[in-house]
Amino acid sequence: MALPECAPVTVVDHPLVQHKLTLMRRKEASTGEFRQLLRELGILLGYEAMRDLPLTTVQITTPMSDMKAPILAGKKLCFVPILRAGNGLLDAMLELVPSARVGQIGLFRDEETLQPQKYFMKVPRGLDKRITIVLDPMLATGNSAVAAIQMIKEAGAKDIRLVCVLAAPEGISTFCKAHPDVPLILAAIDERLNEIGYIVPGLGDAGDRLFGTK
Ligand code: URA
Domain for residue 92, yes or no? Predict the structure, then answer.
């Protein structure tokens, strides 16, 4: 499928990412293994999503000498998991940036229309001054991510990225048309969506696998 013009879509092809993703996809992976692997992938994807954070320098003294050393320039971050599966990536992001703020967006998918229904939103004030990283392991139809990012744009966010584990080409296409300004960071682009909007080959229902609810 030809993808529309949009902000960069980065597929992190690092061997560790691909290895962990394969382990997670296996239907015999336990809830604990799935959760742990999602967290580990979150760290690697988060590292890539924050690759362009602005730096400044500070004067420090090492045991050997004075030096001017790089440090984050103070642009604040906000992580926004889309409930509930997005929570599986949150701890990883907070491990990388413990001082970040956290918002939450609750959307469920109407299984007939596949359209997202909003049931919760709480985000910090001043999103216009932060880099906002939205988290959702699965970009399937793209409808939830489109709605969530519309909601945080309405709340003021301007500099936004979306971190997912897996995407379907259909989801990327829908997402890029709606939000061509938002870069996407992924571990893989799968083959297609099935007739009920699940990614194939995918990994099944990320929320159920993360929380052991099936
Ligand atoms: N949500 C999931 O958890 N898995 C899919 O394949 C699609 C949407």
Answer: yes
pLDDT > 90? residue 45: yes
Beta bridge partners of 199: 193
CB 23 within 8 A of CB 37: yes
Boundaries of domain holding 73 = 9-196
What residues pair up with 166 in beta bridges, in sequence order? 138, 188
Tokens of 115: 């359209």
Q: How many whole angstroms from 20 Cα to the centroid of ligand 1?
A: 18
Cα of 136 from ligand 1 centre, angstroms: 10
Question: Catalytic site residue 66?
Answer: no
Residue with the smallest CA separation from ligand 1 atom 4 is: 205
pLDDT confidence of 147, banded at 50, 70, 90? Answer: very high
Q: Is the pLDDT of residue 80 over 60?
A: yes
- The total of structural domains in the chain comes to 1
Say what angle helices 169-178 and 143-154 make with each other, to 10 degrees. 20
Angle between helices 31-49 and 87-96 in degrees, nearest 10: 50
Q: Give the CATH number of the domain where residue 120 resides.
A: 3.40.50.2020
- Whether residue 3 is contained in a domain is answered as no
Q: Which of 104, 105, 79, 82 is nearest to 91 (CA)?
A: 79
Residue 167: phi and psi, rounded to 5, are: -135, 150
Residue 84, helix vs strand vs coil: coil
Task: Say yes or no: CB of residue 82 within 6 Å of ligand 1.
Answer: no
Residue 202 lies in a domain: no
Q: What is the pLDDT of residue 128?
A: 95
